[in-house]
Specification:
Largest sheet: 5 strands, antiparallel
CATH topology: Heat Shock Protein 90
Number of helices: 4
Structural class: alpha+beta
CATH class: Alpha Beta
Helix content: 25-40%
Distance between the termini: 23 Å
Shape: globular
Length: 165
């Protein structure tokens, strides 16, 4: 994984692919970014996105195999923080940029869409930027939260507009 020249790794760690370890991930990420100027609202959104991405990595990427770790890296950016969540599901992950059916609540309630499928949609709308990539058998989700986000309608503490994500 290539880092931009303005990135500085704050912490890297791994958690076994076992349910519940997303709580360890979000706590360690929150500790790492505590002094980076994120508002409480932004920090809570980042923690939610990290927990959901880690749960996806555990369940879908590593298939709940405790012998496969989820790697998590937190980096300081010139204007915020980036968190990368890496699992071993690259070989069977959809290609980055592949069309994804957006969740539709009415269709889900009518049984026309699976009740699942909210994860990446929710993650993408919790952070300022999300990038999904594949490197061999590794599946990488990178989350970015800026310290000076654009104002979001109805969000007094900023953040990207959902339509822009």
């Amino acid at each position: 994984m290539t880092m931009a020249s303005d990135e500085r790794v704050l912490v890297s760690f791994s958690v076994p692919s076992e349910q519940g370890n997303e709580r360890i991930a979000l706590a360690r990420v929150a500790d790492a970014v505590a002094d980076f100027g994120l508002s409480d609202h932004q920090l809570n959104r980042l923690k939610t996105a990290v927990a959901e991405a880690t749960m996806n990595a555990i369940e879908h990427g590593n298939h709940n195999r405790a012998d496969l770790d989820v790697e998590i890296s937190v980096a300081a950016l010139g204007d915020g923080v980036a968190v990368s969540i890496i699992d071993h599901g690259g070989a069977h992950a959809p290609a980055p940029g592949a069309p994804v059916e957006l969740p539709d609540l009415d269709m889900k309630l009518a049984g026309l869409q699976t009740p699942r499928g909210w994860g990446l949609f929710m993650i993408k709308n919790m952070v300022d930027a999300m990038d999904v990539s594949i490197d061999g058998d590794l599946h990488i989700v990178r989350l970015v939260m800026h310290t000076l986000p654009a104002q979001r309608p109805g969000d007094p503490e900023g953040g990207p507009r959902a339509e822009q994500v």
